[in-house]
Amino acid sequence: MDNTKKARVIAFYLPQFHPIPENDRWWGKGFTEWTNVGKAKPLFKGHYQPRVPADLGYYDLRMPEVREAQAKMAREAGIEGFCYWHYWFGNGKKLLERPFQEVLSSGKPDFPFCLGWANHSWTNKSWEAGTKRIKESTLVEMVYNKEEYVKHFYEVLPAFKDARYMQVDSKPLFMIYNPFSLPDARGFISLWQKLAKENGLAGIHFVG
Questions:
Q1: Helix and strand tally (H, E) in the chain?
Q2: Rounded to whole angstroms, how far apart are CA atoms 88 and 143?
């Protein structure tokens, strides 16, 4: 009897490819991840930079046609679903949420998905700090406490209950970017498991 299981291929989905007011304010009007892609320079012989996008060009994730095309390409490539990076900072602060919220509310594309919580503060060090042009500072700070954990759970519950949401052993798959930064990871996980069962779910399948 063959007990091997096939790997489930899930593509990380970065929602930074559309403008938001915060990025306009921090990095300049119209900033998206494409801004950095276009500025990339080769660092060694044979290093192909900048990389120019092929099939979909410099797309904008606010366009549903783009999201449909991405799902079609992923399906044809054998990818099972998308893991959308999810930016929840606490105190009601979210960033880059529009593409996924439109996927959730519209029901399109009809393609499996899960969420990955990018649980880290945003600073300016990603691209500018150390260049002497700008002093390192925190742009949005991550807030951890039990009240925020409950609010966060109910924020993502509609996604967990969506028929497209990916499951493991009948439990929605939820990824945490850096579980070690949680002040009480065990407490967070046990609270969400409790809330999941109270809301008709079998539990949560956590991945770090």
A1: 6, 9
A2: 9
Residue among 23, 12, 42, 18 at smallest CA distance from 128: 23
Q: At residue 151, what is the residue type?
A: K
Query: Does residue 129 have a pLDDT over 50?
Result: no
Give dist(CA 134, CA 178) in Å, integer: 27
Band the pLDDT of 125: cuts 50, 70, 90: low
For residues 167 and 115, what is the distance between their CA atoms, to the nearest angstrom? 11
Tens-place pLDDT, residues 48-87:
999 999 999 999 999 999 999 999 999 999 999 999 999 9
Cβ burial of 103 (10 Å; 0-12, 13-18, 19+) is buried
**Three-point CA angle 39, 40, 43, nearest 5°:** 145
Buried b / exposed e over 78-90, threshold 16 CB at 10 Å, is ebbbbbbbbbbbb
Q: Which amino acid is at 157?
A: L
Contacts of 86 (CB under 8 A, 6+ apart): 97, 100, 115, 116, 117, 118, 156
- Which of 131, 117, 114 lies closest to 39, judged by CA? 131
Residue 20 exposed, middle or buried by CB count within 10 Å (0-12, 13-18, 19+): middle
Task: Convert the pLDDT of each residue in 25-52 to its tens digit.
Answer: 988 899 999 998 988 999 999 999 999 9
Helical H runs in the chain?
Answer: 21-27, 33-39, 64-76, 98-106, 146-160, 185-198
